[in-house]
Amino acid sequence: MTGTGKITVIGLGAMGAAIAGALLAKGFHVTVWNRTPEKAALLVQRGAVLASEPAAAIVASPVTIVCVSDYDTATKILDMTGVPATLKGRTLILLSAGTPNDARSLDAWVHAEEGHCLHGGIAAWPRQIGTAEAMITASGDKAVFDQQRSVLEALAGTVHFAGEGPGTAATLTTAAMAYLAGNWIGFCYGALICEKEGLKVDEFGQLMEGFTPMLAAEVRHMGEVIQHNRFSDPESTINTTGLDLRLLLQHTREAGLHTALPELAADIFNKAIAAGYGKEEHAAIIKILRKQDS
Ligand SMILES: NC(=O)c1ccc[n+]([C@@H]2O[C@H](COP(=O)([O-])OP(=O)(O)OC[C@H]3O[C@@H](n4cnc5c(N)ncnc54)[C@H](OP(=O)(O)O)[C@@H]3O)[C@@H](O)[C@H]2O)c1
């Protein structure tokens, strides 16, 4: 994808700098602004124009990507002197972390200033931006998404339109964070177990890489099972997985390791067994999690 348009990037941290760099590489005319202007030096050498303030940056292009720490930060920048008046008729693409409420609130504010707004979540590390490995999930006005699709496709090989709700992309990104939190913490528990037994953690990482096809199939399967309430045809039951998790808890106790995650996991599965779901698919633990006092 080669771009010929003008685009502004606000925020030049690890991700914002990667975004600006990918757009330059693909031929866009890029204007940048960052609170710490020194971070723009390499991009300026490559042809980016450094604006002195956010209002000047936004005026330079019809489209501005805002990639700062979070929506609170984005809101503070967009509320700086002179900025609201620049938004009329322009499009903002928010690629900053936030809750669904954050996205809905900023969206309403931008629309009140007669601007357009898209909200996106990035599933990629900065080094993957501009490659086929990156994915962006966006939501907001479909007509605006269609107009800006080429910009998003310059950044990510997979661009997914999640719907017109301004909070939808943030909802999916937040849901993904719940999944990732389990992965990150779970990996470190696995690393603790390996360390304690004198095994190498990098070899454990390679082993887990081999689980990738199984996990890819698993997430799709769990989504379908939960969406369609099909818990009664299991390949792996709550009884089976519950025993595995009790053994995990037993081992972490015997080894003198941190036990919070194994305790939580065993507790949820034990509750599911006590509630009569033992012979069901392990995704049926959602029936326990749906109860707020679970
Ligand atoms: N890095 C990743 O792997 C990754 C992956 C997916 C999504 N993301 C998302 O991308 C967004 C940016 O992440 P990042 O990795 O680029 O973070 P980062 O390296 O910490 O950069 C943060 C950016 O926010 C700016 N900022 C923070 N507080 C500010 C304030 N009060 N006023 C003005 N600017 C402020 C920083 O400006 P200064 O340079 O002046 O500090 C910098 O441009 C986040 O929402 C993150 O969730 C990141």
From TrEMBL:
Q: Which residues form the 6-phosphogluconate dehydrogenase NADP-binding domain?
A: 6-161
Keywords from the named record? Membrane, Oxidoreductase, Transmembrane, Transmembrane helix
Bilayer-crossing regions: 6-25
Per the database record, which ranges form the NADPH-dependent reductive aminase-like C-terminal domain?
Answer: 166-291
Where does the record locate the signal sequence feature? none
SUPFAM superfamilies, per this entry?
Answer: 6-phosphogluconate dehydrogenase C-terminal domain-like, NAD(P)-binding Rossmann-fold domains
Q: What Gene3D superfamilies does the record point to?
A: N-(1-d-carboxylethyl)-l-norvaline Dehydrogenase, domain 2, NAD(P)-binding Rossmann-like Domain
Which Pfam family would be a valid example here? RedAm-like_C
In terms of superkingdom, the source organism counts as Bacteria
GO terms for MF: NADP binding; oxidoreductase activity
What is the name of the protein in this document? Answer: 3-hydroxyisobutyrate dehydrogenase
**Which organism's genome codes for this protein?**
Chitinophaga eiseniae
